Amino acid sequence: MAFLQLKEVEKTFFTYDSVTTAVEKINLTINKGEFISIIGPSGCGKTTLLSLISGLLHPTEGQILLDGKQIEKPTPETGYMLQQDYLFPWLTIEQNITLGLKTMGKTKIAEKELAYELLDTLGLSDKTKHYPSQLSGGMRQRVALVRMLSTDPKLLLLDEPFSALDYQTKLKLENLVFSTIRTHGKTAILVTHDIGEALAMSDRVILLTHRPGSIHQEFSVAHHLAEELPFNVRLDSQFTPLFQEVWKEMESLEKQT
Question: What does the record give under GO molecular function (predicted)?
């Protein structure tokens, strides 16, 4: 059985004087442990698609199934990481990373162990008593990653989590996030405007059309590249030809409009 299935998914927004279809006829199957990236023109419905998968929005048409069960509302089985870290400034790092566990009633030391282990793995074990304002942007995003993983979700949704960072920090964090996700065997979906980032981190890249977004084309990344750290993938001889192939398809979408 597929881990995540989207069947004929459509989302239309209704207001008093307008009707806007954000995505339509989305059919997508994702297997357990896959890392998928979704790219496409601005406004094509990438973030809407993540919101549908998370249960924050409901499809107007179609079904979204996680482990065979229809997604009807947000669930602890899904973790969400956004462009901004959205850490609570009045809470310490320790309090921020265990907040999700607290809302689930998991307050025992043993239940918090994963959060502390992740914080240590990401080099932030000495920051537990610090506040978000005392950390750099890259550090705060690492804390946001720990917060998301601490509840041990099955599916991770990443909405341009590196876009606000400087390029050097972005590359380092790509490696860190990728290796952490692979180590813990998670399934992940990344939304990004960065073709290079999508190819460097993913098993497959899904290209959406202009709004209303539908799947225009799917690109598979060679298995040996999909297992490499993103920085190393960028240096591989197969990276540039694949980048150019995806770029040309995106250019063809622009010309169609």
Answer: ATP binding; ATP hydrolysis activity
Structural domain spans, the chain: 4-77+153-256, 87-152
Report the C-alpha gap between 8 and 159 in whole angstroms.
22
DSSP letters, 29-63, are EE-TT-EEEEE-STTSSHHHHHHHHHTSS--SEEE
Residue 78 has pLDDT above 70, yes or no: yes
Instruction: Give the DSSP per-residue string, 76-119.
Output: TTEEEE-SS----TTS-HHHHHTHHHHHTT--SHHHHHHHHHHH
Of residues 2, 5, 4, 12, the one with CA closest to residue 213: 12
What percent of the chain has a predicted confidence (pLDDT) above 70? Answer: 99
CA angle 27, 149, 94 (to 5 degrees): 150
- State which CATH number among 3.40.50.300, 3.50.50.60, 3.40.220.10, 3.40.50.1220 fits the domain covering 4-77+153-256: 3.40.50.300
Read off the pLDDT band of 103 (50, 70, 90).
Answer: confident
Q: Tokens for 157? A: 């949704």
Q: Count other Cβ atoms within 10 Å, centred on residue 242.
A: 19
Name which residue leads in pLDDT, 244 or 169: 244
- Contact present, 40 and 208 (Cβ < 8 Å): yes
For residue 2, what pLDDT is reported? 86
Per-residue pLDDT, averaged over 91-117, amounts to: 86
pTM of the model: 0.92
